[in-house]
Amino acid sequence: MSTSLLESYETKKWPSLSNLHGISDKTLEVHFGLYAGYVKNTNLLNEQLAELTKEGKATASNPSYAEIKRRLGFEYDGMVLHEYYFDNMMANGNGQAPTGSLRDAFARSYGDFDTWKKDFTTTGALRGVGWAIAYQDPNTGRIVNEWVTLHEDGNLAGFRPIVVMDVWEHAWLLDYVPADRPKYIEAFFANIDWKACEKRLIAGSAT
Ligand SMILES: [Fe+2]
Prior knowledge:
It is built from six helices and three strands; from the N terminus they run ααααβββαα. By secondary structure, it is mainly alpha-helical. The chain starts with about 25 loop residues before the first helix and ends in a 7-residue tail after the last helix. The mean pLDDT is about 95. It binds fe (ii) ion (FE2). The site of fe (ii) ion has 7 residues, from helix 1.
């Protein structure tokens, strides 16, 4: 008898993401491939952990177990954050500011959309590789812009990611020189799917 508690993660596809403003199809193709690597590695690490458990080797003193455990957050967050990122972009974005409850959430937390955007843009311009993420606090409904180093250092536990922007160099270096990260950030804004972001808001929290 062979039963497994494990369910592998599927690699998602975004076939409608092409011809974006300022982000080339080549960049997207490479980026989708990198994302697939995180899905593959998340599945692999979970399989290895299950195997160690089965063999009675899932102990804190086992270096293999410890190393896999420490890597798990990197791979998981690499998978999940890329899904948020690709999900919150769209072809034919109009570059306009959001409306409705999302606009209200930004205004409540930062005064107005432009002030929120300026802070989010500045967050994304920080030195190093990582992510700029506008989170919503589930307790207060307020939005806070956060810097996440790599994929796993800085995520706010229990907060809801609303706008997720990849600022690893692989996200734009085929399209821009390193000093032009701000141009990539502006391109990201031109491609944001605000409706997708709005759907992430915690119900009843934005007023
Ligand atoms: Fe990425």
